[in-house]
DNA sequence: ATTTATTTTTAGATTAATCTAACTATTAAT
DNA sequence: ATTAATAGTTAGATTAATCTAAAAATAAAT
C-alpha cells in the first residue's frame, strides 16, 4: 500500500513536520529549501510528487501541509531516529553530540520488527539523549515539558537540554561543577530566601546552584513528584 | 580521497568479491547480472564506472577483477554486514535466518567510529551467526574451517552451518534433539567402535549422535584443542 | 494604485541507475 | 572453416533527484 518511500522523500516529510510545529501549520517553499540545503526549484518538484502520493496537501503558491499518511511517516522516522540515538549513547558509549549524523542514516533502515526489538532492548525509552520525546508505535508523541530548574517542582528529574545564556563565565562555571548538555538533574530542594537550588548531577553528590545560574539552566522533565 | 561510494557501487563490489572466490578470479558480465538481479547491459555500464574509479580492472569481453582498493571496500562492507548480523542475533534476539535482509541495509551505514564501537560492544566477534568469518579492520579475513563432526578433533567447538542431506527423517531427528542451523556444538568424544559422537548442544546436556548422522552434520570450527 | 521586492513556479539540462532492443565478439558445434 | 549458440556491448529511453536561469504570482512599499 505505502509503496516504499525513498530516503529523500522521507527526509522531506520529516523536514515539513519539524518546520510546521509538528505538522499543524503549512510550510512554504523557501524555508523548506533552506532546511533541506537545496533550491526552491527542487523543493517544488518534490512537493508535487509528495502531493501526488497523498502524503502532503499542496496548492500552487500556498505551501504544503502534512496529510495524515505523511504525518504518520514523519513520526515513524523521528521515532527511529531517536531510538537509534538512545542506542548509540546508552549502548555504544557515544557522546551526546556525536550521534545525530549517524542517526540520520539509521532512521531510514526499513524493518518494523527491528524497531520493535530495538525498543525492547533499550527498555522502552520515552526520551532521546537530547531530551526530545520518542513517538510510540502509533506515532503518538507527548509534548516534552521544558523548564528552568528555578521553576520545576521539588523532586523533579530531567535532562539538561539548554543553557539560556552563552556567557563564557556561566558556561565555565557549569563545566566546573560537572553540568553539561545531557546531564541528568534531580532537583532536591529550593531555598525560599535566595532562590538557590540544590540538585544531584548524574545521580552523584549534592550540589548547590545559585538563583542566577538556576534560572538559565533548562531541563526537560522525565519525572515529577 | 575515496569519493564516497553509492549503495549500488558498494553492492557491486561485494558481489564481485563473492563471485570471484574472495577477489582472486575474474567475474563475467552475465553471472554478475544474475547475482545482482539486473541486466547484462546495466552491469556493463556499472563495470565501466567502477573501472574508471580504479576499483576494479576491466577489459572489454574479458570480465572484471577487483583491484586492491575495490577489494578493501568489499571487505569493509562484509565486515559491517557480519557485525550487524551478530548484533541482531546476540543482542536483539533475532533468529539466525531473519537477519540477512536487515544487514543488507545496515552494511551501508557510513561511520568508521560506529563500527569500531559496535565491534567492541559485541566483544570483538570473529564469526557471524552463520559461521562465516568477520574480516578485521584492515580487511584481513581468515578462511573459515568447515568440517563434519565425524572429522574434527575431539574437543572442537563450532557452529552448525549445514546438513549435507535433506532427507526429511534426518532433519526431523536433528530437530527432535535440538540441533538446528546456528546451534553451538562442542564435540566431547568419539567412539572408535561405531563412529558415534557425543556432543553438547548450545552448552546443554550431553547428546549421542550416530555415525550416519554425524557424517552429515557440518560445523565451522571456532575452537580446537 | 503603481512600483519594487520577494516568493514560487516553469523550462530545460544533468547525472546515476536502470531498461529494451539491436548489434558485435567469442566460443562451441558441426 | 563455416555455422550456430552464447556472451558481451552499444544505442537510445526512462525515472528520480538535482541544478540554473527565466518567467509569473504574490506581498510589501511608496
Ligand atoms: Mn538527532
Ligand atoms: Mn535527538
Ligand atoms: Mn548475510
Ligand atoms: Mn552471514
UniProtKB/TrEMBL annotation, chains A, B:
<dbReference type="GO" id="GO:0003700">
    <property type="term" value="F:DNA-binding transcription factor activity"/>
</dbReference>
<keyword id="KW-0238">DNA-binding</keyword>
<comment type="function">
    <text>In the presence of manganese, represses expression of mntH and mntS. Up-regulates expression of mntP.</text>
</comment>
<dbReference type="InterPro" id="IPR036421">
    <property type="entry name" value="Fe_dep_repressor_sf"/>
</dbReference>
<dbReference type="InterPro" id="IPR036388">
    <property type="entry name" value="WH-like_DNA-bd_sf"/>
</dbReference>
<dbReference type="GO" id="GO:0003677">
    <property type="term" value="F:DNA binding"/>
</dbReference>
<dbReference type="GO" id="GO:0005737">
    <property type="term" value="C:cytoplasm"/>
</dbReference>
<keyword id="KW-0464">Manganese</keyword>
<keyword id="KW-0010">Activator</keyword>
<dbReference type="Pfam" id="PF01325">
    <property type="entry name" value="Fe_dep_repress"/>
</dbReference>
<dbReference type="InterPro" id="IPR050536">
    <property type="entry name" value="DtxR_MntR_Metal-Reg"/>
</dbReference>
<dbReference type="Pfam" id="PF02742">
    <property type="entry name" value="Fe_dep_repr_C"/>
</dbReference>
<dbReference type="GO" id="GO:0046983">
    <property type="term" value="F:protein dimerization activity"/>
</dbReference>
<comment type="similarity">
    <text>Belongs to the DtxR/MntR family.</text>
</comment>
<keyword id="KW-0804">Transcription</keyword>
<dbReference type="GO" id="GO:0046914">
    <property type="term" value="F:transition metal ion binding"/>
</dbReference>
<keyword id="KW-0805">Transcription regulation</keyword>
<keyword id="KW-0678">Repressor</keyword>
<protein>
    <recommendedName>
        <fullName>Transcriptional regulator MntR</fullName>
    </recommendedName>
</protein>
<keyword id="KW-0408">Iron</keyword>
<feature type="domain" description="HTH dtxR-type">
    <location>
        <begin position="1"/>
        <end position="67"/>
    </location>
</feature>
<dbReference type="InterPro" id="IPR022689">
    <property type="entry name" value="Iron_dep_repressor"/>
</dbReference>
<dbReference type="InterPro" id="IPR007167">
    <property type="entry name" value="Fe-transptr_FeoA-like"/>
</dbReference>
<keyword id="KW-0963">Cytoplasm</keyword>
<dbReference type="InterPro" id="IPR008988">
    <property type="entry name" value="Transcriptional_repressor_C"/>
</dbReference>
<comment type="subunit">
    <text>Homodimer.</text>
</comment>
<dbReference type="Pfam" id="PF04023">
    <property type="entry name" value="FeoA"/>
</dbReference>
<dbReference type="InterPro" id="IPR036390">
    <property type="entry name" value="WH_DNA-bd_sf"/>
</dbReference>
<dbReference type="InterPro" id="IPR001367">
    <property type="entry name" value="Fe_dep_repressor"/>
</dbReference>
<dbReference type="InterPro" id="IPR038157">
    <property type="entry name" value="FeoA_core_dom"/>
</dbReference>
<dbReference type="InterPro" id="IPR022687">
    <property type="entry name" value="HTH_DTXR"/>
</dbReference>
Amino acid at each position: 500500500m505505502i509503496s516504499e518511500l525513498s530516503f529523500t522523500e522521507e527526509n522531506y516529510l520529516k523536514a515539513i513536520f519539524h518546520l510546521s510545529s509538528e505538522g499543524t501549520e503549512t510550510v512554504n517553499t523557501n524555508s523548506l529549501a533552506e532546511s533541506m540545503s537545496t533550491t526552491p526549484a527542487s523543493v517544488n518538484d518534490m512537493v508535487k510528487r509528495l502531493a501526488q502520493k497523498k502524503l502532503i496537501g499542496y496548492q500552487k503558491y500556498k505551501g504544503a501541509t502534512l496529510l495524515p499518511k505523511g504525518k504518520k511517516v514523519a513520526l515513524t522516522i523521528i521515532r527511529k531516529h531517536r531510538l537509534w540515538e538512545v542506542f548509540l549513547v546508552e549502548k555504544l558509549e557515544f557522546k551526546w553530540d556525536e550521534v545525530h549524523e549517524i542517526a540520520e542514516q539509521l532512521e531510514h533502515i526499513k524493518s518494523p520488527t527491528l524497531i520493535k526489538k530495538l525498543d525492547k532492548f533499550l527498555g522502552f525509552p520515552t526520551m532521546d539523549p537530547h531530551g526530545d520525546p520518542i513517538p510510540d508505535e502509533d506515532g503518538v508523541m507527548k509534548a516534552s515539558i521544558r523548564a528552568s530548574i528555578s521553576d520545576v517542582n521539588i523532586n523533579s528529574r530531567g535532562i539538561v537540554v539548554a543553557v539560556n545564556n552563552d556567557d563564557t563565565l556561566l558556561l565555565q562555571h557549569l563545566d566546573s561543577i560537572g553540568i553539561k548538555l545531557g546531564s541528568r538533574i534531580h532537583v532536591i530542594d529550593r531555598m525560599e530566601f535566595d532562590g538557590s537550588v540544590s540538585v544531584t548531577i548524574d545521580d552523584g553528590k549534592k550540589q548547590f546552584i545559585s538563583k542566577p545560574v538556576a534560572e538559565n539552566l533548562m531541563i526537560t522533565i522525565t519525572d515529577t513528584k
